[in-house]
Structure formats: C-alpha cells, structure tokens
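Let us walk through a complete example step by step. Step one is to write down the protein sequence. Step two is to encode the small molecule, zinc ion, as a SMILES string so that its atoms and bonds are unambiguous. Step three, shown after the inputs, is the structure prediction itself.
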Amino acid sequence: MTDEIEAQKAEYREALKESDRLYLAWKNSAEGKAWSASQDHIEELREALEDVEKCENCLEIVFDDEPQYQTSDGDPLCEICSPSFADLLREPSGFIGTDDEPLTPEQAQEMVDQHLKSGGNVSDSMAKVPAGATA
Ligand SMILES: [Zn+2]
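Step three: the predicted structure of the complex.
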C-alpha cells in the first residue's frame, strides 16, 4: 500500500466512525425517536395489508391501481423494479409474448416503436396501471 492510500485509509476509517457517532446521536434525539415510531407504524400498516400483492423484487406493496408490471409468473413488480423499454430492446428473449413464447427482437422493436409513437421514451418504465383499476 502506498503512503497516499495508507493516509486515505486512515481518513476513511475515521469518517466511518464519525458517521456512526452522528447516527447514534441522531437516533437518540427526539427526531430520531419519532422516526423509529413512524417505522413501527408503517410496519403495523404493512401487516394489516398482508393480503395486498407485494413487488416480487423489493417486497414493496403494489396496490391494484398503481403502475406495475406483471411478470410471466403473474407476479407484480413495482414501478421502480419494472423493466424499461430499453431493457426490452436489450434482451427481448427475457420477455414472454401473448403466445407464451419469448419475444423476438422484431416483436420487441415493434412494442418499443408503438410506445415511441404514443409519445413515450425508450427509458420509460414498462409499468402501467392495470386495465379496469379504479384509481
Ligand atoms: Zn419493487
């Protein structure tokens, strides 16, 4: 290890210690305690909503009227975890078409073209509010 790295390592370790110290001070402050109580409340609400679907990836609750993406197994992904149209172009075979077959690059391109025609961008999430949902 060079002297420069050695010095940076010491500074890095010191910064981590300072961060821990600040976190503990905050956690024991009124604001930190209020935050902990809010987390407990959120956990209670999540338990009460146990029958509502959760994102297959991050376990966040996905309500019927919120943008989501249905995986081929029928499980929802939340808007954040949903693939983008760029993902669709990059790996068409990772997506299943209405015929239960992996998409071809041509089919993927067609879906993306359709999305662009309706004013969307390639970087947009493929999540959408399910048809028939009452928002
Ligand atoms: Zn998610």
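Step four is interpretation. The first strand starts at residue 68 and ends at 70.
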